[in-house]
Sequence to fold (721 residues):
Amino acid sequence: MHQYSFFQQQEKSPDSHSIDSLGSTLDSYLSPEQVNLVKRAYYYAEQAHEGQRRRSGEPYVTHPLAVASILANMHMDHQSLMAAMLHDVIEDTGISKKALSEQFGETVAELVDGVSKLTQIEFQSRAEAQAENFQKMALAMARDIRVILVKLADRLHNMRTLGVLKPDKRRRIAKETLDMYAPIAQRLGMHNIRVEFEDLGFATLHPMRSTRIQAAIKTARGSNTEIVAQIKESIEACLEQEGHSAIVMGREKHLYSIYKKMRSKKKSFSEIMDLYAFRIIVDSVDTCYRVLGCIHSLYKPVPGQFKDYIAIPKANGYQSLHTVLFGMHGLPIEIQIRTYEMEEMANYGIAAHWLYKTNDGQPLNGSHTRARQWVQGLLEMQQRAGDSMEFIENVKIDLFPDEVYVFTPKGKIMELPQGATAVDFAYNVHTDVGNSCVACRINRRLAPLSQHLESGQTIEIITASGAQPNPAWLNFVVTGKARTNIRHFLKNQRTTESIALGRRLLEKALSGLGSSIEQLTDKQRERVLSDTGINSFDQVLEEIGLGNRVSFLTAHQLLSDSADETNNAENPSHQPLMIRGSEGFRVNFARCCYPIPGDPIVGFISSEKGIVVHTENCHNSIDFRDNPERSVTLGWDENVDGEFSAELTIELEKSRGIIAVLATKINSLDANIEKIGVEEEGPRMNSVSVVVGVHSRIHLARIMKHIRSIKAVIKVNRAKH
Fold:
């Protein structure tokens, strides 16, 4: 009881502005030797930051002192407080980690280094910076979870003093806090810090909305005072009658949670404020359940609204009994019942690990273990994720979702986010179980793998050797672990299959040129790697298999060091690939410019169509040149053969049967009409667009000459795009 009241008092006190006032706080729970070590760290930081000032004009050392004060209010250990005092020393003053280690020991130096590394690197985009920072944070947390606690306290003081910064920087820091630091604080069970992060961030990003909601809360609180007092009085009277000693308090909703509920549930402010919330704090777990019975006899409980987070704690260690009642006049009342220790856990989360320890240094609750498991999961995801953006996308899913609690066939409770499926459950059991999962039983009945799980169900996974993850699973899994592992498996599978396909395609292309992959020399392979900028020959095969490179072109590049090398020794790989018109590989002629033999041409590699041939002056080919890796130099072979499409625009006078005359003339010249379109140019003229199949430019010129001889034709041109 005494400890709880101390915390309440500390929570309301402002940041300490002197080492003496902080010292008096520390004296209440640290030994004199430990207090002296913290003070020594302060004086060291004061000397190191000598002459440096914050944007507000205060000496810089006021910031580390305030950060240490935040941690002291949470009763953190002396090493965390020392690290808080010194957290900017490595970054801002040039003092090395080694020097700190000699002065204050290896543990403190590691903590300071961990906090410093989170802000030292610059990135091309803010999103990338946030993702990379989160990866580094995961690694730092894995070494010592106190790193993140110091970082959260550092960010909290920066949020409290945002006012002196420029508006765009204020908004950026506030958004980053709401996106990343507030969810982490919640995931670690640190309710007080999370609430302050959210309210300060909300006030910075949306000052007008924040002010209006705050004013509305003040008005609502004034009008509800009498009802709140009546409910509180009746609860206290009921508990006293049953002989229970407890603290009953009205629970305030914070600004950001009201705003989020108004937006997500599309409710008005008055609807949200109609719910009266109370917290009852008692001395033991046994009393929690007795008080619950007492409250349910006082007011009628709302069916389906009771949640027992004492028997099954939340992922971040939060424990409490939740119930909703029909109060006087039918008003809904939300009640939370918990012990003093649970209250500290709810407010300070993992920081309370340093508060409640047994004599041998072990925590009394599972919060620290849960946090460690979460961090371990982060590291596993980081190793398997393709890049930092994929990693943070998966982590954001896992940052304190609403949970469902399901059972394994042996009765073990497993905790999953809302909307989780049997596939999420399988990966949560073990990666190998997820990868070989083929079916599931929910409550002993076969069920679809995509079915959403509900609390209380028993899940059994059916596996088969040789089974593989299905890409369709990515459409319904919700946990980061499942998503990361499925993607990781599919990437590896796609790579293996693409290499095999690429090898077959290249072998076929080489055999057409009288060679094979086995006959290639190291020199030929290495030159193609240097020309393409690819690291290994397997990657070249993978690119061919994926359709990003054309096998016939790669075969030409590989074999171009023979007779042709003497003709173009400087750059053999950039010799034009000669188009014959009868290639056995994928060559498509663009429908935007209709290239024909004799036109200057350029090729572009497409993963769907192979090489697409354009004329050099085509507007699309000009765009493609910005991507030289996918451009191919092309030329026409002397013995070019085949039929090629060309588009003509013909202006002619309107007259009966003129289109039939035109079609007959074209057909008589050994040319097929592939497409014809007529547009009215005016009362006496038509414009005809016709696509014809020709063998060469000479053949096209002959067709155009004969069309001009038709009396009604005014003008004939080859269409330009």
Notes: The chain has five domains: 2-209, 210-354, 479-564, 576-642, 644-718.
